[in-house]
Design a protein that fits this description.
single chain; alpha+beta; 10 helices; about 50% helix
Length: about 260
């Protein structure tokens, strides 16, 4: 996460105060709440709502096979704050078959709330190779989707352009390094040509100084770098993830239900 997406104590307080109401209304116990929106990528502007995603356990025996899925929380939590939920049973079922995307989406991000004794068991299923592979694909695809949405000859504002550039830089790091990408732009741009680094830092400084909806000036060096890097990253392959044994899944989920269900 970028420094622009650092945890806001006010949002932490709102989330924590809202959890009893949400748990009561939906019959769940919440294990973790994280920032899942553009703010978490450092691309949110002042009028961008906080998107809080949480993982929950239903207050019912999981053997009843309740239908898993995401839920939009429409309670009057707070203006400028969106909340969605993911049934941890469905999330873990996906991980059992080798699809860790849903689990990673709620495992990553700035945490507003966490029950460590239950959540640590879930994240223990994710190996470093799976984290690297899924994070790389997520960042690369986010950048590609963003850039493809720009029509020919259209202007981009600072927020959306920085979002795409930041994702490209982090995906580049994931492709070339085993460790997690750093959050600061300075470290992410190490090894690039000095003129390109200067343009990227200029973009970051202007993003901080101006309204994020302001139209950014032409920065051809960055755009050429992004185009060539996305072409390179499209050919990068990552190891296929391995699934979770049924016994391990059953043990973790039954423990969660006993503790929180």
């Amino acid at each position: 996460m970028s420094d622009a997406g650092a945890v806001d104590p006010k949002i932490c307080q709102i989330v924590r105060q809202s959890l009893p109401q949400i748990e009561s209304a939906f019959g769940v116990r919440v294990l973790r709440a994280t920032e899942a929106g553009p703010r978490g990528y450092g691309a949110g502007s002042l009028d961008t709502p906080h998107d809080v995603q949480f993982a929950y356990v239903r207050k019912a025996d999981w053997y009843l096979k309740l239908t898993p899925g995401a839920e939009k929380i429409s309670l009057p939590v707070s203006p400028g704050l969106n909340m969605t939920g993911s049934d941890i049973r469905g999330v873990l079922r996906s991980a059992q078959s080798g699809d860790f995307e849903a689990l990673l989406s709620v495992a990553q991000g700035d945490a507003y709330f966490e029950q460590p004794e239950g959540w640590s068991e879930c994240t223990g299923l994710i190996g470093p190779a799976n984290i690297r592979a899924f994070d790389f694909v997520r960042l690369r695809d986010r950048a590609v989707t963003q850039v493809r949405s720009w029509g020919f000859g259209t202007d981009q504002d600072f927020a959306e352009f920085f979002d795409a550039a930041y994702c490209v830089l982090r995906a580049r790091w994931r492709a070339d390094h085993d460790d997690s990408p750093p959050e600061d732009v300075g470290s992410l741009t190490e090894g690039l040509e000095e003129d390109l680094r200067a343009d990227i830092h200029k973009l970051l400084n202007e993003k901080r100084e101006k309204a994020e909806t302001a139209i950014m000036p032409p920065l051809p060096r960055i755009q050429i770098f992004m185009d060539s890097e996305m072409q390179r990253l499209a050919d990068v392959s990552t190891p296929a993830p391995t699934g979770v044994a049924s016994e391990q899944f059953d043990q973790i989920f039954s423990s969660l239900v006993r503790s929180f269900g």
